[in-house]
């Protein structure tokens, strides 16, 4: 296996050692970032007189040719992407390729590549989050009046609407976008020029390479620059958080698409069949998102465990920081696209959802609130409504079936005027506090969400 080192070694390393330490196959994820960083470094070396302008131009032309060729021409019998590119560069431009590594180390090089890769991935992630938010916003408006149950403890709680429920996911995604933007800024500092750990004696210009690569500034301490992997852990945490919320949406789609609920039908394009049961329409994509969330969470734990107690300075342990990042970013992007596709193509059974609220006693709180408006202390109102619920259950009734005579029989102290609040639709119409599902409150929330969504980026959490 070809390496960038070995002059002091009398014997070659064992084949198992070579294979165990090789990272070229995963490194190919950021082959372009390695080229971009190398072009900036070569240009800076020429500008500073560390190498001649002619040599810098030759190096940059060779690197541009590698970019045009793509990764297919890069050698695979090497340790890593840095070696692959330098070997291929040597085949193109000759011995001058050996000058590219002047005043840098693979330690600052890989840190630069990873930050550039993360920047590109986050830009794509921002776009995907915005698109899913846009769909939720549209469906929140479309289904703002579609009655459905609301749950706490997975027990019927209060009536809500489908639009109200979907908008809850909109705001969760807004927080994830905000976190990802903070990460974008946090990772936007350049380690290039830090070399192995203590900088270099060559007269390099770290500000120039940082500016060319789009970084805010160089990282002030070379040892910190080559040791830091906190930005990758932050990225893995952001990915895990997004997947957790996508998993919650997926779980709802799994439950609601079953016959027991019958709230939604997922399209043929996002479901699969059974090899033995012809009638089956399985929500496999939702289930896979739910399952793979565990792997994305595990990726964060994996790197956190790797970094625990590592002393400052580059350690080979951190070679394993990138596969979890590549894996998590790939999974979260695919999961967002799949959730978008599932929701976009779903058929909602609005009548079934509305009917399911009937008879579930979920307007009991409205009755207690009504009594409180008449001057009854809420705790006493709560007890009175509990007696009403018990009386209905004993008689085989539901709240919506109560009339003045039955109400007087069960709870003589509750006025007949309270009957109007027991209908689920009326319950929703009365809930107009900020963030509630009432018509006016939902209009305000949708307008607020639209303003947030149409603004650039994720500058506000709410």
Structure description:
The chain has helices at 15-21, 24-27, 31-47, 53-69, 81-93, 106-142, 162-186, 206-212, 222-227, 230-256, 284-307, 322-344, 350-357, 364-373, 378-395, 404-410, 424-430, 439-454; strands at 147-152, 155-161, 189-190, 217-218, 264-265, 347-348. It is mainly α and 462 residues long. It folds into three domains: 15-102, Orthogonal Bundle (Fumarase C, Chain B, domain 1); 107-149 and 160-195 and 220-352, Fumarase C, Chain A, domain 2 (Up-down Bundle); 357-445, Fumarase/aspartase (C-terminal domain) (Ribonucleotide Reductase Protein R1, domain 1), CATH 1.10.40.30. A hairpin with a 2-residue loop joins strand 1 and strand 2. Helix 4 crosses helix 5 (81-93). The longest helix has 37 residues, at 106-142. The radius of gyration is 30 Å and the shape is elongated. The two termini are 54 Å apart. The mean pLDDT is 93.
């Amino acid at each position: 296996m070809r390496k960038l080192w070995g002059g002091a070694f009398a014997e070659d390393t064992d084949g198992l050692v070579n294979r165990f330490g090789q990272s070229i196959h995963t490194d190919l994820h950021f082959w372009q970032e390695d080229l971009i960083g190398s072009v900036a470094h070569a240009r800076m070396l020429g500008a500073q007189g560390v190498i001649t302008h002619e040599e810098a131009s030759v190096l940059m032309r060779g690197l541009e040719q590698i970019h045009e060729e793509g990764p297919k021409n890069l050698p695979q019998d090497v340790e890593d992407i840095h070696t692959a590119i330098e070997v291929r560069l040597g085949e193109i431009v000759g011995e001058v390729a050996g000058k590219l590594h002047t005043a840098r180390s693979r330690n600052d090089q890989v840190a630069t590549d990873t930050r550039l890769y993360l920047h590109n991935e986050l830009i794509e992630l921002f776009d995907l989050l915005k698109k899913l938010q846009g769909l939720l916003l549209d469906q929140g408006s479309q289904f703002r009046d579609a009655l459905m149950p609301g749950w706490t403890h997975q027990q019927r709680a209060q009536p809500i609407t489908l639009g109200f429920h979907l908008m809850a996911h909109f705001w969760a995604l807004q927080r994830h976008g905000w976190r990802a933007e903070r990460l974008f800024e946090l990772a936007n500092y350049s380690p290039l020029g830090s070399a192995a750990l203590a900088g270099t004696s060559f007269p390099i210009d770290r500000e120039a390479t940082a500016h060319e690569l789009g970084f805010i500034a160089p990282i002030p301490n070379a040892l910190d620059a080559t040791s830091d992997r906190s930005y990758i852990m932050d990225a893995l945490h952001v990915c895990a958080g997004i997947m957790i919320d996508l998993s919650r949406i997926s779980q709802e789609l799994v439950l609601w698409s079953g016959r027991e609920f019958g709230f939604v039908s997922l399209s043929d394009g996002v479901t699969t069949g059974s090899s033995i049961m012809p009638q089956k329409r399985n929500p496999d994509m939702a289930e896979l998102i739910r399952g793979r969330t565990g792997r994305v969470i595990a990726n964060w734990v994996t790197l956190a465990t790797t970094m625990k107690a590592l002393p400052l300075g580059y350690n080979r342990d951190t070679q394993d920081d990138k596969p979890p990042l590549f894996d998590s970013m790939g999974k979260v992007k695919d999961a967002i696209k799949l959730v978008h596709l599932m929701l976009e193509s779903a058929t909602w059974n609005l009548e079934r959802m509305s009917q399911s609220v009937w008879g579930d006693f979920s307007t009991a709180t409205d009755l207690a609130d009504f009594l409180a408006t008449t001057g009854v202390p809420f705790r006493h109102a709560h007890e009175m409504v509990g007696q009403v619920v018990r009386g209905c259950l004993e008689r085989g009734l539901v709240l919506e079936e109560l009339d003045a005579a039955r109400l007087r029989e069960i709870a003589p102290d509750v006025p007949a005027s309270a009957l109007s609040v027991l209908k689920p639709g009326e319950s929703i119409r009365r809930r107009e506090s900020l963030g509630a599902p009432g018509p006016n409150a939902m209009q305000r929330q949708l307008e607020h969400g639209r303003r947030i969504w149409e603004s650039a980026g994720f500058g506000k959490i709410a």
